[in-house]
Amino acid sequence: MSQLSVDHLLGIKYLKAEDIELIFETADHFKEVINRPIKKVPSLRDITIANLFFENSTRTKLSFELAEKRLSADVINFSASQSSVKKGETLVDTVNNILSMKVDMVVMRHPNPGAGVFLSRHIDASIINAGDGAHEHPTQALLDSYSIRERLGEVGGKKVVIVGDILHSRVALSNIFALKLLGAQVKVCGPKTLLPKYINSLGVEVETDLRKALEWCDVANMLRVQNERMDISYFPSTREYTQQFGVNKTLLDALDKEIVIMHPGPINRGVEITSDVADSKQAIILNQVENGVAIRMAVIYLLASKIKK
Ligand code: NCD
C-alpha cells in the first residue's frame, strides 16, 4: 500500500491496519529526518495548512506546527479565544473564510464530538482531527502505538492496560481502536464511574484492581483525570483516586517484570503517576512527544499527497 485509504484523518475508526502500517513506515523516515542537523525537507512547499484550535492545547498544537514547518508547508494559526466565533459566526462560515484564502488542509481541535466529520461534509479541504471533545484523538493513538512498537518491537500480541478516566478520554477511545486494529490485547482500569457502559462492546476487558492489571500487562497507559469535563464528582477525592488508581514506584517494583509506562500528557504529578515513575527509564513519556512530530509529519505528508491541485 502506498496511499492511505482515507482523504481525512477524522478518527482511528475510519482506518485500516494497512493505513497505520503505512503511517508508521513513513514516520520511521521522518524520525530519521528530524534527528539530522537540518531537520527539514521541502516536500510540502506548495501546501498551506490552517491549525484551528477551538480548545486549549500546548503539546498537540506545537507538535502539529513543528511537523508542518519541518515539511516546509505554509502555516496559519487560529485559536478560538481571539476569533469571530465569539461574535456568533458558525463553524462552517469561520472555516470557509479561512479556506477562501487558499488553504489546503485543516488541523482542528474542537470541544464537540464529531466536529471534524461535520466539517468534512461541508468544506473542500483535507481535515485532521486533533481532538474532538471526548470522542477521538487519532494522532495521539498513532504516536502511542508507534512508541510501543519502537520500545517493544511490535504492537501485535502485546498486553496494554489503559488506566484512569476512560469515560471522558478521546485518547482512550482512539487508543482502543488503534491497539485492537494492530492486534494488541487491551484492558481498561479505573473507577466504575469513569468506565463507559458500552466498554465491553469495544472488545476490551475491564479490570478494576490496578495491581492485577499491572501484573497482567506489558504496557500501562496512564490517563489524566479530565477535571474540565466533569461537572459532577466521579470519585470521593483525589487522594482516594491516587490510592486506588495511581501508579507509584513501590507498586511497579513489586511486579516480577518491568512494564512500559506511558502518559499522553499533561501529567498531574502525584495524582495518576508519581514523579519518580514519570521520570524513570521505564516511562517513555518524552519518547511519545518526540514521536508525535514524526507521526504528524507522516500523516500530513500522506494526506497532502492525495490532494488534487
Ligand atoms: C490529551 C488531550 O488533549 O486529549 N492531551 C494531549 O493531546 N497530549 C489528553 C489530556 O488532556 O489529558
From TrEMBL:
It catalyses: carbamoyl phosphate + L-aspartate = N-carbamoyl-L-aspartate + phosphate + H(+). It comes from Leptobacterium flavescens. One of its GO terms (molecular function) is aspartate carbamoyltransferase activity. This is Aspartate carbamoyltransferase. GO terms for biological process: 'de novo' pyrimidine nucleobase biosynthetic process; 'de novo' UMP biosynthetic process; amino acid metabolic process. Belongs to the aspartate/ornithine carbamoyltransferase superfamily. ATCase family. PANTHER family: ASPARTATE CARBAMOYLTRANSFERASE, ORNITHINE CARBAMOYLTRANSFERASE, MITOCHONDRIAL. Residues 8-150 form the Aspartate/ornithine carbamoyltransferase carbamoyl-P binding domain. Heterododecamer (2C3:3R2) of six catalytic PyrB chains organized as two trimers (C3), and six regulatory PyrI chains organized as three dimers (R2). The keyword DNA-binding does not apply. Pathway: Pyrimidine metabolism; UMP biosynthesis via de novo pathway; (S)-dihydroorotate from bicarbonate: step 2/3. Keywords: Pyrimidine biosynthesis, Transferase. Residues 157-302 form the Aspartate/ornithine carbamoyltransferase Asp/Orn-binding domain. Its EC number is 2.1.3.2. InterPro entries: Asp/Orn_carbamoyltranf_P-bd (IPR006132), Asp/Orn_carbamoylTrfase (IPR006130), Asp/Orn_carbamoylTrfase_sf (IPR036901), Asp_carbamoyltransf (IPR002082), Asp_carbamoyltransf_Asp/Orn-bd (IPR006131). It holds the Pfam family OTCace. L-aspartate binds at K87, R170, R224. The gene is pyrB.
